[in-house]
Amino acid sequence: MVFVTAYDAYALRAFDESAVDYLLKPYDRARFGRALERAKLRVRERRTGPVEDLLRALLEAVRPPAYERRLLVRGGARSFYLEVGAIDWIEAARNYVRVHVGAQAHLLRATLLELERRLDPAVFARIHRTRLVNVARIRELRPWSHADLVAVLQDGTQLVVSRRYRGRLPGLQ
Hints:
The chain is built from four helices and twelve strands. It is α+β, with helices and mostly antiparallel strands. The chain folds into two domains: 61 residues, no CATH class; 99 residues, CATH 2.40.50.1020. The strands form four sheets. The protein has a five-stranded antiparallel beta sheet, covered by helices on one side. Strands 10-11-12 form a three-stranded antiparallel beta sheet, with no helix packed on it.
């Protein structure tokens, strides 16, 4: 805190309140600049503390997470980007995932869990321990055995939605 006043009698009290500096009116630009630099230095020094940590945690909680918009796919000698919105569904393949876009499938070095965290949950839902689906690509849901469902995609692909994950689909919570 920088105190600014025309009365020097308050200077001692200002420093009792942990003042960074005390400007006595009238002051010039140079004196104001030194007080400002001192205040900036104090702010940089006190970046960690209970109040600052709490504010940082609150900011992180309200800041929307940054989800991937494109995925880099390597195919032979070339690499290219896939727009996330173009993906129909994704399946686990050991330490890889197979990304389905229309009739094509691309292999990507990542785990399904890792990719699930990188993609927007409003766009992609986990429907099975081995599959994620672009919710906008689901045309209909049909009953299957033992409370499972089958998701029929717009291109006719049928994917089992296990009862464990069915609650992750919008409207089925």
